């Protein structure tokens, strides 16, 4: 197979997050496949990112004799000397523009549709994202492929926090719907629930509203947590609650399942697809239903045991080897 260039800048960020983790694990798994010769592009140089992506990158591809370029972060060069594959994780910047800085939102809304329409193949991490992309941007469905991500967070031995707690993971931003979760939790606390609620993620603007919604309920905002602490938090939680209004997949759902943590998720966008029938589902806009779902999982021991078993089985269905195999098959279509 000719050399495949991959834009791996996000995989080398100081604090790994969704897209960076996807790129890192994909590159690792592809390198274990002898058929794929990877040219891993780790740095973008100085100046605006868009200048490197659209002007500098095509020159690098030509100089290195790349047979294909894979952009795992939406931003494929529109003029390029070889076929292009782009991974689209979600279109949250269209659905929830308030969660993005003005310039960042402009970049996504300007380039993402053009890159998707330009690409010879578009990889989507869920069927929900694939349908959203085709309907919103008019991308030919024949050029799209759905390839799920997989759990990748190392399972370690750092002690889990003491005491009973519920866990939610993700940046504190509006689309994560954490204010409603905190209000539902506060109601359970008033009813006598002994757990605290741990919110693990950077404050992206919702911290003040979350604290106000908590009132006197025990809600802990951790800020960014590293991999070992996040692993420990998941292993120790009695329940992971993921009430997000919009997700392209929801990797944290299967990460928790892999650790035997029951999961309750929003019945919205790609989250039921990620959960694969192994999670409790609720309407993310209905606080009473969210409250009832949390209460039921915590109080019904047989339900919890079944959810743990189904969750482990669901997580085991996904692997980066399978993701890499399917991605390499997309490359072969173009080379």
Please give a structural write-up.
This protein has 335 residues and is α/β, with parallel strands linked by helices. It has 2 domains: 4-150 and 319-334, 3-Layer(aba) Sandwich (Rossmann fold), CATH 3.40.50; 165-316, Glycogen Phosphorylase B (Rossmann fold), CATH 3.40.50.2000. 45% of the residues lie in helices and 15% in strands. It contains 13 helices and 12 strands. The chain has helices spanning 18-31, 49-64, 92-95, 102-118, 127-137, 178-190, 207-214, 227-236, 251-258, 271-275, 287-299, 301-316, 320-334; strands at 4-7, 38-41, 68-71, 84-88, 121-124, 144-146, 165-169, 196-200, 219-223, 239-242, 263-266, 280-282. A 6-stranded parallel sheet has the order 2-1-3-4-5-6, sandwiched between helices. A 6-stranded parallel sheet has the order 9-8-7-10-11-12, sandwiched between helices. Strand 1, helix 1 and strand 2 (38-41) form a beta-alpha-beta unit. Helix 6 (178-190) crosses helix 11 (287-299). The protein is globular.
Structural class of the helices, strands and pairings? alpha/beta
| Element-level helix/strand string | EHEHEEHHEHEEHEHEHEHEHEHHH
| CATH fold category name of the largest domain | Rossmann fold
Radius of gyration: 20 Å
| Tally of domains | 2
What overall geometry do the principal axes of the alpha carbons give?
A: globular
SS summary, helix count: 13
- End-to-end CA span: 7 Å
Strand residue content: 5-15%
The stretches of 5 or more residues where confidence is low (pLDDT under 50) are none
* CATH homology-level superfamily of the largest domain: Glycogen Phosphorylase B
């Amino acid at each position: 197979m000719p050399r495949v260039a991959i834009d791996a800048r996000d995989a080398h960020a100081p604090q790994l997050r969704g897209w960076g983790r996807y790129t890192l694990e994909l590159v690792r798994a592809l390198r274990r496949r002898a058929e794929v010769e990877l040219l891993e592009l780790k740095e973008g140089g100085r100046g605006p990112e868009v200048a490197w992506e659209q002007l500098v990158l095509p020159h690098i591809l030509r100089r290195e004799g790349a047979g294909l370029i894979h952009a795992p972060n939406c931003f494929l060069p529109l003029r390029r000397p070889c076929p292009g594959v782009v991974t689209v994780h979600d279109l949250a910047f269209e659905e929830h523009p308030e969660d993005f800085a003005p310039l960042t939102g402009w970049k996504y809304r300007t380039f993402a549709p053009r890159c998707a329409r330009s690409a010879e193949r578009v990889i989507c991490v869920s069927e929900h994202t694939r349908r959203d992309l085709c309907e919103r941007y008019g991308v030919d469905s024949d050029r799209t492929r759905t390839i799920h991500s997989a759990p990748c967070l190392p399972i370690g031995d750092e002690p889990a926090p003491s005491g009973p707690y519920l866990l939610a993971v993700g940046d504190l931003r509006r689309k994560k719907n954490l204010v409603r979760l905190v209000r539902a939790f506060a109601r359970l606390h008033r009813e006598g629930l002994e757990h605290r609620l741990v919110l693990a993620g950077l404050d992206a603007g919702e911290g003040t509203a979350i604290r106000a919604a908590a009132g006197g309920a025990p809600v802990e905002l951790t800020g960014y947590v590293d991999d070992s602490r996040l692993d420990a938090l998941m292993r120790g939680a009695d329940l992971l609650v993921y009430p997000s209004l919009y997700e392209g997949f929801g990797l944290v759902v299967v990460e928790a399942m892999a650790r035997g943590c029951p999961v309750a998720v929003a019945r919205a966008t790609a989250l039921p697809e990620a959960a694969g029938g192994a999670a409790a589902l609720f309407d993310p806009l209905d606080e009473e239903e969210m409250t009832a779902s949390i209460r039921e999982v915590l109080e019904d021991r047989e339900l919890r045991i079944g959810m743990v078993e189904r969750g482990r089985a669901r997580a085991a269905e996904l692997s980066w080897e399978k993701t890499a195999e399917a991605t390499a098959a997309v490359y072969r279509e173009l080379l």
